[in-house]
Design a protein that fits this description.
Number of domains: 2
Strand order of the largest sheet: 1-2-3
Largest sheet: 3 strands, mixed
Number of helices: 11
Number of strands: 3
Strand content: under 5%
Radius of gyration: 28 Å
Shape: elongated
Length: 325
């Protein structure tokens, strides 16, 4: 049927009452999204939470004005229609996903919410021919433009430069503690600890497939071990290092990747070609670790490089010597 897209209707096929009902449900949803974000950040970022609460209240005021307009034009019964019922209508990113990405991502999302709504209504107003519908869509677009100005005004009120800088610094610290620190520990462990068994097997057998299997087992085993160790070692309540699940994932995944980096070349059947590539990747891994330490841990690059490269070189040499014995 025309206008039906997998059970959804096209925006152009909605009548004026349905367009108004869609705006009502969208305003209510956006208010609830702001309230959810405010609850997620209130403990660590109270100023941003206050701003989001004010924006949620403003959305509900617009929601009530739309309801009053609907009652005046169409009566008490508002059709049940939401944005997911309309093909091509702008979608909102799930709050659980955005909330896990940090305060900067939340701030970006709320600005995008207002911009998307404004752009959609403005574009829709240009495509309709009915004068009343065009007027309604134009008013909705203007309302969303007003929301964007309100968002900026509320941010200036609740997030002066010093407060925002303080919150940004806290967010960066939390990111480092929750993701970078355990991830870096995992990358170092995976890259360095697997050097000896992988290269010992390589030089002892000169069999690339056997070396790959040993490297794969060592990498996955180390990743599982590091992930569970990080998760069980600290629940984050006292230390403030954040969710143990997130830290465990960061440590486990990066440990596995660190080991697989120099195990994967041994898929190549030619031993010396695979070994040369693996050696090059080891060098890159160790310098990447040094760069991460410099970038996020404020460790002088030369000192970080000397520590990591020296430690890696010793483990690599041990593996080669044992394998060649």
């Amino acid at each position: 049927m025309l206008g039906n897209f997998g059970g959804r209707r096209h925006f152009n096929d909605l009548n004026e009452q349905e367009i108004l009902a869609l705006a009502i449900s969208s305003e209510e949803d956006d208010s609830r999204i702001y309230q959810t974000y405010a609850a997620q950040v209130r403990d660590e970022f109270p100023a941003t939470a206050e701003m989001l609460t004010a924006m949620a209240a403003e959305e509900m005021r617009h929601h009530q004005r739309l309801i009053d307009l609907h009652k005046a034009r169409f009566g008490e019964t508002i059709p049940l229609i939401r944005r997911e019922h309309v093909a091509g209508f702008y979608a909102r990113t799930p709050t659980w996903l955005v909330g896990n990405l940090g305060i900067a991502r939340i701030r970006s999302e709320i600005l995008g919410m207002e911009e998307n709504a404004h752009a959609y209504y403005a574009k829709a107003a240009k495509r309709v021919t009915d004068a009343d519908t065009r007027r309604l869509l134009t008013e909705l677009a203007a309302a969303e433009a007003g929301h964007m100005k309100l968002s900026s005004a509320l941010e200036e009120k609740h997030l002066p430069e010093d407060v925002r800088s303080e919150e940004d610094a806290l967010a960066h610290r939390q990111f480092v503690l929750t993701w970078v620190q355990p991830g870096l520990a995992g990358l170092m462990d995976g890259s360095v600890s697997t050097l000896a068994p992988i290269f010992a097997t390589a030089f002892a057998t000169q069999n690339t497939w056997t070396t790959f299997l040993v490297g794969l087992a060592a990498s996955i085993g180390a990743g599982i071990s590091m992930g569970f160790t990080e998760t069980a070692s600290d629940d984050g309540t006292i230390s403030g290092r954040g969710s143990p699940i997130k830290r465990g994932i960061a440590a486990g995944v990066m440990t596995t990747l660190g080991g697989l980096g120099h195990a994967l070349p041994y898929i190549i059947p030619h031993f010396w070609t695979a070994t040369a590539i693996a050696f090059t990747l080891v060098f890159c891994e160790l310098w990447a670790i040094a760069w991460i330490q410099k970038r996020y841990m404020d460790t002088p690059f030369f000192r970080a490089a000397m520590q990591v490269v020296l430690g890696g070189a010793l483990v690599f040499a041990a593996g080669v010597l044992i394998g060649s014995a």
